[in-house]
Write a sequence for this structure.
């Protein structure tokens, strides 16, 4: 008896849908891309319950006739390909013919559509890949698609969906990517009857500013280069606008948003020496090239691509960014074609660097002193020192000693304790503010409020962690659209960069993607304890060293950091003797 059987159509469609439709944002991406391919000039997206309950898209594209509306939800049905060779000449967003088929297999899908040449439109209701209703519809030219009850027939997949804030953030990300690359189209996003975006067709620069706020205007640098048939253009951010948070890096190949760590590295390499470590520059970069030189048919989501010559594209992207930064004197270079408006700032920065090198040379010259003379000085200072001391005197003079910048040595009886004081401070701060959660925590007011602009996606994360940040001791509140204001910071902390901390909190939650309040709070506390210190000085005095040691042993878990790293080690007399 044969054991191999062909899967039913409904099961096969659900398996395929698992690759294409992963969450509500996947539906949004596919629907918007279909509207763009349909030459729409006005696209409206309406979301309810973060897309779990309903996603509606309205466009004024070319629409479909009665025959096409029945075919469009069949698997591998598309108007964009005719033969295999067409895959390497694709200029549209979609081409695989899987989107509507996948959506209809895991949701209830209603389509109303009318072409410009038809007097009346058509309507169809599909559920579980089956047509339930067909009728005529009075609508204007274009298409209205409503997707309801996503994953109604796959409870496990629906249960894996995150909170509304997280799912809405992913929808905003997809909407933003489509809106940036199609700046000649009017876009509207409505969430729970409230307008989040109303974007009028404009230039690329105006579209970026309208999405990310007016404050971005002064940080944008335009770049454009042509290399034979390859064109690279867009906008990059000035180094000083780099952030701790990722998510404001947009790379498009032939107007399609793609993810490429390889090309991302080429861009970051261009900023080398201009931005701090673990900060990320803003960029919206387009690469246009012959469709035959790039393969977009790698994955159903179409965000992964392969170039014929990846090394060439890497070099071109890297040189374009470097040339742009040099042209505007963001990095110091001698360039007679440079924009003189940026010259003063560049020369000032260059002078500062030169001064730093001079100081470095002075230090190196000091290191070149006569070592014999130094040794004689040390020997003369210690001539009167006793080789052996009685026990009482040893206890009195048992002072902690700092070794390099990281370590503190302290004798405790017959043991030598070696502390990593940076790790110790993490544990102390973590437990101090962990106790303060949901209780009154002292706050020191800033002399001047710190205003922080966030992109819409990051602002959604901010809403979920605002109370947790306040519980640490931050005096923080919302300030207008997609902005917050920091009026105060936890008491007892100095040299705190509020902007870096807030962006760091957001990045921590973004990377861990946690929905549980307890986990979010713990992630925030761990990040906070890594970034702030009891003392920022590298050279500690005796009082500071003793304070760190005393506070550490007052903790519930003095042995390890919140991340599980060791705070100190014990060296007994036997271990020390075994070293010799």
């Amino acid at each position: 008896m044969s054991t191999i059987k062909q899967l039913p159509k409904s099961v096969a469609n659900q398996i395929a849908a698992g690759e294409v439709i992963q969450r509500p944002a996947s539906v949004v991406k596919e629907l918007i891309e279909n509207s763009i391919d349909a030459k729409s000039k006005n696209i409206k997206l309406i979301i309810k319950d973060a897309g779990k309950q309903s996603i509606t898209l309205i466009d004024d594209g070319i629409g479909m006739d009665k025959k096409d509306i029945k075919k469009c939800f069949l698997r591998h049905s598309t108007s964009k390909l005719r033969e295999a060779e067409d895959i390497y000449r694709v200029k549209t967003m979609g081409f695989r013919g899987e989107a509507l088929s996948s959506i209809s297999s895991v949701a209830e899908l209603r389509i109303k559509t009318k072409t410009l040449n038809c007097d009346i439109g058509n309507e169809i209701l599909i559920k579980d890949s089956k047509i339930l209703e067909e009728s005529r519809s009075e609508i204007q030219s274009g298409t209205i698609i409503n997707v309801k009850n996503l994953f109604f027939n796959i409870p496990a997949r629906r249960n894996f969906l995150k909170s509304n804030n997280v799912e809405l953030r992913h929808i905003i990300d997809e909407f933003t990517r489509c809106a940036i690359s199609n700046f000649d189209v009017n876009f509207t996003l409505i969430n729970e009857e409230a307008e989040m975006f109303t974007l009028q067709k404009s230039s690329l620069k105006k579209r970026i500013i309208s999405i990310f706020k007016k404050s971005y205007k002064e940080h944008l640098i335009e770049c454009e280069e042509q290399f034979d048939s390859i064109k690279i253009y867009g906008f990059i951010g000035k180094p000083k606008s780099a952030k701790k948070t990722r998510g404001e890096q947009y790379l498009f190949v032939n107007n399609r948003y793609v993810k490429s760590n390889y090309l991302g590295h080429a861009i970051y390499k261009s900023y080398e020496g201009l931005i701090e470590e673990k900060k990320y520059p803003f960029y919206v970069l387009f690469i246009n090239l012959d469709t035959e030189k790039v393969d977009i048919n790698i994955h159903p989501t179409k965000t992964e691509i392969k170039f014929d010559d990846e090394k060439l594209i890497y070099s071109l992207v890297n040189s374009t960014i470097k040339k742009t930064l040099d042209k505007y004197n963001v990095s110091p270079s001698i360039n007679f074609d440079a924009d003189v408006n940026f010259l003063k700032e560049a020369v000032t920065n260059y002078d500062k660097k030169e001064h730093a090198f001079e100081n470095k040379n002075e230090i190196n010259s000091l290191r070149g002193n006569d070592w014999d003379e130094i040794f004689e000085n040390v020997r003369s200072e210690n001539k009167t020192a006793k080789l052996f001391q009685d026990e009482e005197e040893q206890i009195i003079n048992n002072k902690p000693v700092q070794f390099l910048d990281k370590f503190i040595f302290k004798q405790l009886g017959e043991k030598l304790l070696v502390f990593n004081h940076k790790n110790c401070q993490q544990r102390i701060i973590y437990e101090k503010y962990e106790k303060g959660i949901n209780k009154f925590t002292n706050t020191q007011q800033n002399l001047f409020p710190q205003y922080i602009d966030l992109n819409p996606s990051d602002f959604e994360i901010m809403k979920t962690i605002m109370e947790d940040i306040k519980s640490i001791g931050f005096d923080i509140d919302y300030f207008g659209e997609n902005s917050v204001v920091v009026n105060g910071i936890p008491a007892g902390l100095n040299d705190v960069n509020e902007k870096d901390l807030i962006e760091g909190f957001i990045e921590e939650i973004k990377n861990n993607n946690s929905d549980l309040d307890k986990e979010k709070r713990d992630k925030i506390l761990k990040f906070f304890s890594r970034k702030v210190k009891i003392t920022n000085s590298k050279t500690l005095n005796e009082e500071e060293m003793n304070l760190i040691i005393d506070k550490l042993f007052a903790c519930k878990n003095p042995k390890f950091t919140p991340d599980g790293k060791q705070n100190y080690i014990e060296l007994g007399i036997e271990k020390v003797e075994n070293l010799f």
In short: The radius of gyration is 31 Å. Residues 166 and 495 are 32 Å apart (CA to CA). The chain has three domains: 9-201, 211-340, 390-580. The mean pLDDT is 81.
